Amino acid sequence: MGGAQQPHLNGAYYGPSIPPPPPKTYHRPGRGDGCNPLTCCCGCLCSCIFNCIFQIILTFVIVVGVIILVLWLTLRPNKVKFQVTDAALTEFNFTNTNTNTNNLNFNLALNMTVRNPNKRIGIYYDSIEARVFYEGQRFDSIQLTRFYQGHKNTTTLNAVFKGQNLVLLGNKEASKFNEEKSSGTFSIDMKLYLRIRFKVSVFKSPKFKPKIECDLKVPLDSNGGSSGSFEATKCKLDW
Q1: Which of 156, 168, 157, 161 lies closest to 141 in space, CA to CA?
Q2: Cα 18 to chain centroid, rounded
Q3: Under 8 Å between Cβ of 91 and 155
Q4: Which one of 69, 187, 202, 224 is least enclosed by Cβ atoms within 10 Å?
Q5: Continuous segment of H or E residues that includes residue 23
Q6: Where is the Late embryogenesis abundant protein LEA-2 subgroup domain (predicted)?
């Protein structure tokens, strides 16, 4: 068969231009690229643990808050009220000794009332220590009888401080003592250190240690009786 003769090709190509091959790129993985299965697993586990702990703590706080609110609404607790109703000071003077120290001679009797205004809360007074101070220095302390106080009850306490103790006064305190001696009324502080427990129905609380502070103005009564000029003084409760 005869066919058309193809002209001899000399290696030249006259068709469309051939685009150059794309340049080779080299990808260097960075530290944040990709995900290590072990790292991802640990991160998810830690996040889950933290979320669970947070939810447990939040739930606990909410439950405790609700319980406290319910107890408060049910019990309606009120502060116990302390008051010194009467005081008799028949001796309060210093005696200089051979060692040039000052001994305070004192005879002080105090009557107090303790009022529990609560309807559903009783109070155990497991320990009551009464201390008396003059110009910041304690000159005597006694233990009062322990007792239980029921609901909406008022209890009377009596404390007698009598004796002689060393009390050192500076110039300023000594000057104030002389002024009060001239006026016939002394500034005496009494503090009660308590250990108490609360009782609600059959339940008893742990022990608490509140402190009662009473700032008294006590007139000296040389006749040895209760001073009628003493003004009843409310005391401050310090938790």
Answers
A1: 161
A2: 87
A3: no
A4: 202
A5: none
A6: 112-214
Instruction: Tell me which residue of 148, 93, 158 sits closest to 116, measured CA to CA.
Output: 148
Share of the chain above pLDDT 70, in %: 72
Which amino acid, one-letter code, is at 145? T
- Alpha helices (H) in the chain, listed in sequence order: 37-75, 171-183
What Å distances lie between residue 10 and 4, 7, 17, 191, CA to CA? 18, 9, 18, 123
Gap between the Cα atoms of 90 and 92, Å rounded: 7
Could you report the per-residue pLDDT of 203-227, keeping only the tens digit for each? 999 999 999 999 999 999 876 554 4
Residue with tokens 């739930």: 59
pTM of the model: 0.70
Q: Does residue 124 contact residue 199 with C-beta atoms inside 8 Å? A: yes
Q: How many residues does the chain have?
A: 239
Strands 185-200 and 122-134, bridge-based pairing:
antiparallel
User: What does the pLDDT read at residue 64?
Assistant: 83
Between CA 110 and CA 153 the distance in angstroms is 20
Quick one: which of 88, 93, 90 has its CA closest to 164? 93
Amino acid residing at 133: F
Q: Between these two residues, 228 and 77, which has the higher pLDDT value?
A: 77
Q: Order of strands, edge to edge, in the sheet holding 81-96?
A: 153-166, 102-116, 81-96, 233-234
Place of tokens 């009332």: 113
